[in-house]
Design goal:
110 residues, mainly alpha, Cytochrome Bc1 Complex, Chain D, domain 2, two-stranded antiparallel sheet, binds heme C
Amino acid sequence: MKKTTLLIAGMLALSMGMLQAADAKTNWAAKCAGCHGKEGKGDTKLGIKMGARDYSDPKVQDSIKDEAIIKALKEGVKKDGKQIMKAYTDTFTENEIKELAAFMRTLKKK
Ligand code: HEC
C-alpha cells in the first residue's frame, strides 16, 4: 500500500514537472522565438537584425546570470538607450518568468 502511494506521488510529481517544462517551452516558442529562435540561437531575421546572441553557446550562457534573465523579463533590455526587448510583466506571472529562465538554460548545447 505504502509503496503504491509513493509510486503514484512520484508519477504525479514527474508529470507535473513535464507539464511545467512544456509550458515554458510553449511560451518561449510563442513570445521569444521570433527574435531568439526556437533553439535560442538568435538566428531569425529579426534576431539577426537586433543582435540577439546565440544562447546555445555555453560561453554566452555562462556570461548571463540568473538575475539578469529575470531582470530582462521584468524590465526589458536596453541598448544605447533604446529598448531592444520589452518587459514581460504584463504577459507572464512571476512563476512563468522563473520557468522561462530555467528553460533558457536548457538551450545550452555542446
Ligand atoms: C523583439 C525581439 C525580442 C523578443 C521578442 C525577445 N527578446 Fe530577449 N533579447 C532581444 C535582444 C536583441 C537582446 C540583446 C542581445 C542578446 O542578449 O541576445 C535580448 C536579450 C535577452 C536576454 C539577455 C539579458 C542579458 O542581461 O544578457 C534574455 C535573458 C532574454 N532576452 C530573454 C527573452 C525571453 C525569455 C523572451 C520571451 C519572453 C524574449 N527575450 C523575447 C530581443 C528580443
